Amino acid sequence: MTLDWDFHPLRGERVTLDLLRPDDLDDLAAMQGDPAVCRYLLYEARSREKVAEILERDAAATHLAVKGDYLQPAIRSADGRFLGTMYFELQSVEDRTAEIGWILAPHAQGQGYATEAARLLLTLAFDELGLHRVYAELDPRNTASVRTCERLGMRHEGHFVEHMWLKGEWTDTGHYALLEREWQAAMLPRQA
C-alpha cells in the first residue's frame, strides 16, 4: 500500500477533481445553502459564513497518510465550471479502508458527473493507494446516490433502519461497498 499521497488534480473525460479555491465560495455557498441539496446530508443548509469557514478548512486537506486524513476536492467540468464536491476519507490504514461521498449542484445533477468523479477517486484508491475497501453511507431515500453506487459496482451491504436521529426524524442508513478485487475485475473489460 502506498500511503503518503499529496493531492494533484485527477482528470477524467468530462470532469477534473481539483482543490477548492477561494473563488469557489459563491458556488459552494449556493450548493451547501440549498435545503433541497442538503435534504439527505448530515447537516442543514449552511450560511455563507459557515461555508467560508468550511472552504478554508477543506481546501487545506491535501494529504493522505493516516486515519482521518481526507480530501474534499471540487468537481469541475472540462471548461472549469464548479459542479460539486467529492469526499474521500481514510477510515483505517491497517485495514486499507476509506469512505467516499459526493454532492452535486442542482445544475449538474442527473448527468453522470458524480459517477465519473467517483471513478477517479476509486482509481486512486485501488490502483495508486492500494486500498482494499471503499464504502459509502447514505440515506436510502436519496435514490440518485443509490443509483450512483450501483453504477460504480458497489454492493448493497446493509440497510440500518432508524439508524440515527437527524433533522427531527429517525432516518435509515444504506451501506454500499466495493473491494479492490471487485474493482479490478470490473476494470478488466474496460482495458481489453
UniProtKB/TrEMBL annotation:
**Pfam families from the UniProt entry:** Acetyltransf_3 (PF13302)
**UniProt cross-references to SUPFAM superfamilies, sorted A to Z:** Acyl-CoA N-acyltransferases (Nat)
> What InterPro entries does UniProt report for this protein, alphabetically?
Acyl_CoA_acyltransferase, GNAT_dom, Ribosomal_N-acetyltransferase
In this chain the N-acetyltransferase domain maps to: 15-171
Protein's UniProt name: GNAT family N-acetyltransferase
Q: Which organism is it from?
A: Microbacterium helvum
